Structure formats: structure tokens, C-alpha cells
Amino acid sequence: MEAEMRVFVDSLRKNITAEDVVNLEACMDCKMCGEACAWYLVTGDEKLHPTHKTGLIRQVYQRYMTIEGQIGGALGLVPTPTVDDLKENMRYFWACTACGRCTLACPAGISTRRIVRLARAAYADSGLSHANPTIKSIIDNTERYRHSFGLTIPQVIGRVGLFLRSEGIVAPVDVHGAELLFVCPAAGNAKIPDYGIKMVKILNAAGVSYTISPRVIDTGTEIDHIAVHHNLSKQMLEEWEEEADRLGVRKILLVECGCDARTLYAEASEVLGRPFRYPIVSVDTLMLDLIREGRLPIEKTDLSVTLHDPCYATRLSGLGDVFRDLLYLVTGNFVEMTPNREHNYCCNGGAGGMRLPENTDLRRKISVLKANQIRATGAEYVTSPCVVCTLSLEDTCRTYGLAQSDERMALVLFEIVYEAMEPALAKRGELERMYVPEELRNRDPEFFLEHSIEGRMAALMEMPEFPALLDWLERDEIVQRFAKDHPQVYDHLRALRDMTTLTMPALRARAVAEQSSFGSRKGGDS
Fold first, then answer.
1. Quick check: is 457 in a domain?
2. N or C: which end of the chain has fewer CB within 10 A?
3. In a 3-state reduction of DSSP, which class is residue 217?
4. Are 293 and 237 spatial neighbours (Cβ–Cβ below 8 Å)?
5. Which residues lie below 8 Å from residue 331, measured CB to CB, with a gap of 6+?
């Protein structure tokens, strides 16, 4: 057996379960799974059919992992897959989002997505997937930066801090004893941090006890679902737990990411060999409870909205009712798309569909199904409780002329909630509730400086790399996008550059003065 094949097979042998054996043995090759797969339905390409992927892994399993195959292979009676076969077919395991829709059409209920996940892990363990530059970058970035897009902690904190500072919003950082630990998935703080500050405003306005970690800046989404690198995924999950231990929080806040929902509710047990140690609170469930309890005031928006169900959150994690209950509370014009819930078509972006650039043309072609779904609703906006789904939907809406290139038709679900919250706060004269989080109210200036984003920005100024960070922020496309509606962001950048000439005592004095201004806002809330 070739060396890479040996490692590939060892990986399968290590990770395979009794259910996986049934999945591999029970297939009748009826091909009905293809009738549910968007990638096959649109293209008719047999290599994109679910059974093309499962068929190869079945051959590997039967040849190298069964007594009959080992004997039959030695006698030339059973096909012997080679490393060249693995290399030739590797791309098809990532021309797939492992969304699980094919299982709904299978008479035997076979989980093709589970076989795809096993295969991706084996490709990672054997090193074969490292030949793909994007997958390799996810692995390398996670090892080096603990962020799959390669952002550093100063870049993540600095950019979010700049946006919050520009709007006068404060977020709690490194607060011990808070109720919830808020860790943003890499796609969120890399691709939509400007939209994400609305989530901070919601949590602040509702008086939620939460803290942001200054150490953990990635939930491990891509290492778990794209690279499927179990060793690194285990390290990321353990570091998440250790950070929760250090901060003394009680629960983990699951921010809007479909893949993270599946990780925390299911895959973590596989990777860790035990359940994740902390209770999980979905941010959508949290917002729903906050509204029902009267802690988050809302005025129903008249936006016409349809919902895209993230495959990993609805079909694979059962959260579909939560999203609908939330939408019915915040908008009076919610329109279901067809099909919906667990039968909804994939956005074609998750688990590598959008991340791998070689998929772009194919993904856009396949997304005609999703575009037709959205168009048929007549809705003004499509929303999804998943960052990557929303990014993929935004691209689909522009590709198929549902939205102009400078328009956003796809919104993350918390943005719809924000549209209902802001006018309600304004009507009550309580907009100031968004500015200061519960954990920083009625705190002394030193605590405020140490545990706010503002204080973290002051600490960054002590770094010799701070001028380079400011240069990066000035060139950053996300900052440029934010500046279109918030031109004052460049004034804040210039102010930050001017402050680099100040001494640390002067910086502290300035931060304390700014904390006092926030304190006057708190007085207005009481």
C-alpha cells in the first residue's frame, strides 16, 4: 500500500463509526440522492453526484478495511484504489457543501455528508489536501495565528475597536464573571465586522452580561468544516473552553454561524471524544427570549423579508422554528420561500463552497435555484442567521440581478432585529442604552480602561507595530466600506495616529476622560 494511502486508510479506520459502516454498506446505488443535490441538479455532472464521492470512499473501505477486500485485492478480484485516484477526485469532495439535503431523498437515510466529512479528514491527515492552496492557508493560518483568514489579534481588536469608537459604542473585554463568552467566528470578524457592531448594540441595549475574549478570535469554523483537521479543531475547542474557564463565564454565546451550530451541538463530541464542557446559548434564542421578556424593546419593521434556512443550523441542528419565531416578532411582512426549513436548497457557500475560489463559477451557476427561490417570494430582503450564508446570498442576489452591485439585499438575521429595536429605543428616548454594556456600567475609571475595547485600543498604542496597524486599517476594504456611511471613521484614524505621540500616562488620562463621558450617558439611562 502506498504511504499516503496508508495514512488515508488509517484516518478512516480511526474516525469511522458503526453508523458510517452502515452508510457505506447500505447504498443500493439507486441515485435518488442526486434528486436533492443542487450541484448535480443544475449541472447534470455525474462527478458532482453524491454517489461519486461515496463510491470512491466505499471502494477504499472495501479494499483496505474488510477481510474480503484484502483477500480479493491480493487476488486481483477487487478494485484497488490508488493515491492517484484520491488526487484525481479530491476536488469533488470540496465541490460540495456537505449540507445533508441528499439524505432526505435517500430511501435508506444514508448520510453522504458524513462520508464527505470522513474523506476530508483523511485527506487532511494524509497531507493530500495541503495541495489545495486555500485549504493549506486555513491550516497554516490556524496554526500560526489561531485565525483561519490569517488576521492577528491586534487587527481584529483594532478594526472592531475603530468601528465602535466611531459610533461611540463600548464593548466589554476580558471581564471575569460575565454570564456569556462572545467569540466571533473568523468569517464574521474578517468579512462583516462593520455589520457585526449592531450585535454589540443589541446586547448592550438589552443589558446582557457578556464579555469578549482578547485571546480567542476564531471559533474554528473553517478548520472543522472545510479543512476537517481534527487535531487543530480539538485544540481550538479546548482553547475556547480554557478561555471560558479563565474568565469564569457560565455559558458560550453561539453567534450566527450555521457551521458553529453543528460543531457545538454535534461535531465537538466527535472531535473532543466528549461533549463540549459549556452550555451553548444561540444568539437567536437569546434575542427571542429578550424580546419576550421585555428586555429588548422592538417596533415591528415593515420590511418585506424572506428567510434562508442555513443547512447546518436548520437541517442539521433543528433551529428552524427559533428563526421563524424571531422573525414573526420583529417584522410584519415575513414571506416563506419554497421549499423551506429542512428541505430548503443550500446557499452553496458553506463548508468551502464559497471559500475555495475554484468553486466560484460553478457555485454561481448552481445558485440559480436559490435566486429563483428568492425572486418567487417578491420580498425586498433575504435574511439568514449565518454569516457565510448571507455572504453567499449577497453574491447570488447580485449575480442574478436581484440587487445592484452597490446594494445589499441579503442581511444577517440580527440586522433585521436591529431594524426593529432602534426605532423602539428612539420612541422611548432610550437610544443611549446601546452605548455601554451591562458589565461596564457603574464601574470605576481604571476598571473601565482595563476591560473596554477603548482600553484595548490604548494598549495597542504601546506596541511598536501600532503605526503599521493604522496603515493597514487605512487601506482595509472593510474600513472603506464602513466609511461610506460613517465618514467620521477617518477622523478617528487620524486622531489615533496623533495619539501615538502621547505618553502612556497621557493616554490613560484621555481614556479616563472619555470614560467619564460614557458615565454621563449611563446617567441618562437610569
1. yes
2. C
3. coil
4. no
5. 300, 301, 302, 303, 305, 416, 420
Residue with cell 460543531: 263
- The grid coordinates of residue 437 equal 454594556
CA quadruple 33, 36, 42, 47: dihedral, nearest 10: -20
Judge if 408 and 274 occupy the same domain: yes
Q: Measuring CA to CA, how many Å separate 452 from each of 96, 113, 460, 486, 517?
A: 41, 42, 13, 22, 14
Indicate the residue among 394, 428, 462 that finishes a domain: 428
CA dist., res. 55 & res. 50, Å (int): 8
Number of structural domains in the chain: 3
User: If you average pLDDT over residues 331-338, what whole number do you get?
Assistant: 96
Q: By the 8 A CB rule, do 348 and 367 touch?
A: yes
Residue 526 lies in a domain: no
- Enter the DSSP assignment of 342: G
Residue span of the structural domain in which 84 resides: 3-129
Q: Report the interhelical angle of 283-292 vs 413-428 (nearest 10°).
A: 30
Nearest to 431 by CA among 422, 439, 440, 419: 422
CA 513, 518, 521, 526 dihedral sign is negative
Cα angle: 386, vertex 390, 395; to 5 degrees: 155
Whether residue 476 sits in one domain with residue 421? no
Mean of per-residue pLDDT scores for the chain? 93
Residue 436 lies in a domain: no
Going by C-alpha positions, the residue among 396, 395, 394, 399 that lies closest to residue 409 is 394
Whether 147 and 112 map to the same domain: the answer is no
59 and 186 co-located in one domain: no
Identify whether residues 460 and 346 lie together within a single domain.
no
β pairing state of 210-212 and 180-182:
parallel
Helix pair 83-94, 50-64: axis angle to 10 deg: 150
* CATH number for position 81: 1.10.1060
Using one digit for the tens of pLDDT, what is the confidence trace for 159-175? 999 999 999 999 999 99
Same domain as 253, residue 148 = yes
Report yes or no: 221 and 263 within 8 Å, Cβ to Cβ: yes
Q: Give the end of a domain, one of 67, 102, 129.
A: 129
Residue 176: which of 235, 245, 118 has the closest Cα? 245
Give CA–CA dist 365/363, Å, rounded: 5
Chain mean position to CA 69? 41
Question: Are 387 and 498 in the same domain?
Answer: no
Task: Give a yes or no: residue 441 inside a domain.
Answer: no
Using a pLDDT cut of 70, give the percent of the chain over it. 95
Cα-Cα-Cα-Cα dihedral sign, residues 233, 237, 240, 245: negative
Mean pLDDT across 403-407: 84
Q: Residues 255, 383: one domain?
A: yes
